[in-house]
Amino acid sequence: MSLFSLLINGGLSAVGAVICYRLILTYIPIFIQRKMYGNDQSKTSNDPVPEPMGVICAAVYLIVMFIFIPVPFFEWVGSETEFPYAKLLAILSGLISISTAILLGFADDMLDLRWRHKLLFPTLSSLPLLMVYYVSGNSTTVMIPGLLRHLIHPFFDLPISVNISFVYYIFMGMVIVFCTNAINILAGVNGLESGQSLVISISVIIFNVVQLIRVDSQYWHHLISLYFLLPFTACTAILFHFNKYPSRVFVGDTFCYWSGMTLAVVSILGHFSKTLMVFFIPQTFNFIYSLPQLFHFVPCPRHRMPKYDGKSDTVSMSKAIFKKSELKSLGKLSLFIFNLVGLLEKREFEKDGEIWIEINNLTIINLVLKFSGPMHESRLNQVLMGIQISCSILAFFIRFYLASLFYDV
Length: 409
Ligand code: UD1
Ligand code: MG
What we know:
The structure is a single chain. The chain is mostly helical. 63% of the residues lie in helices and 9% in strands. It has helices at residues 2-33, 54-68, 85-111, 115-125, 127-135, 146-152, 166-182, 192-214, 219-243, 252-269, 273-279, 281-294, 329-340, 364-372, 377-406; strands spanning 37-39, 48-50, 141-143, 161-163, 307-309, 314-316, 319-323, 346-351, 354-360. The strands form four sheets. The chain has a three-stranded antiparallel sheet with strand order 7-9-8. A two-stranded antiparallel sheet has the order 1-2. Helix 1 (2-33) packs parallel to helix 9 (219-243). The relative contact order is 0.13. The structure holds uridine-diphosphate-N-acetylglucosamine (UD1) and magnesium ion. Uridine-diphosphate-N-acetylglucosamine (UD1) binds at residues 38-42, 51, 184-185, 187-190, 247, 250, 253, 294, 303-305. Magnesium ion binds at residues 184, 187, 253, 256. Pathway: Protein modification; protein glycosylation. Keywords: Endoplasmic reticulum, Glycosyltransferase, Magnesium, Membrane, Metal-binding, Transferase, Transmembrane, Transmembrane helix. Its cofactor is Mg(2+).
């Protein structure tokens, strides 16, 4: 029966992809007519690029998911066995969180929301999902690494696993808030937002399939993840086709929040939120590296995307310039650390009797450009995709090889 559901889900995903393709072509002129577009800041032409096209794919995705909802439950129609309400609830709560993320993204595209809203809204929209997780009696137990148990053994007898209860819920809430924002702040290069999401979702699909084949006790959890991810991947692949260099459409914040939330939701429903974090290594690094600018310890310009040079048709590191006196003590500390470990390009100069500081904007994109020098935008996206794919390979190595050394998995 589950194979039948997966086949239907795959078929609906393929239909969704075709509909996305046609709708995007139909809506490109409509977006421009309605003045819903952005300007590609790394091009000499100032042609309008329809934005946020992610809303079209997100709508198709929701329709596919709504049509799919009854499919996994066909076998209970007219059956005497008890209906699996917890499974239906899990799908519905996931869809609530994803729908609210799409709403938040669209609001951000239209209104340019403040950071506190971008943090508060996903926190609250995670509640239905966490509530269902709680009432379904899902586990909040984490394994203790065998190595740690052996090291501590002479002093304490540590158990194999420990129930961290509400701390686990805080962790899952943080995963949701992090994922919804992480893709949006690793952006500004043609094809990057859709490309990274595609690599992560395909990696998670491979992980789910491997787990389905290897471990049968978590069967439903990996299956539900595939139900959500196959249509997402199909719609995102089409979006990537239009968003890759040279972008014919921009995905918008709608796509970034939808994508982040979908990945977070499947990891929670599929019980692999810790593994998901390993697939998010580039985003986690980018987030930590960005923290001084996100929290304004260091001044943050509106856009941190690379700087375009029309003559050579290349992009290079973009810089933030500010008075030394504007720097807060946490800002000074973070710049000192980044400088120490070679992650910062910094220049101090004097102008009008004041000391000014020039640093590269703190994103992984600018960091790549710091080490490589200027390059063509499409090449930059290929390098960033290469990093993302390498991290997925590393994640598989960590999850399937290293984890088995440390845990009894
Ligand atoms: C986030 C980043 C910002 C980055 C921006 C790029 C943080 C805190 N914010 O802001 O630094 O500059 O994404 O999306 O890190 N654009 C391009 N080429 C692209 C993609 C986007 O030129 O390939 C430009 C277009 O003008 C587009 C605009 O970026 O209209 C979209 O920016 P938006 O998504 O509103 O920026 P934020 O998500 O707020
Ligand atoms: Mg954005």
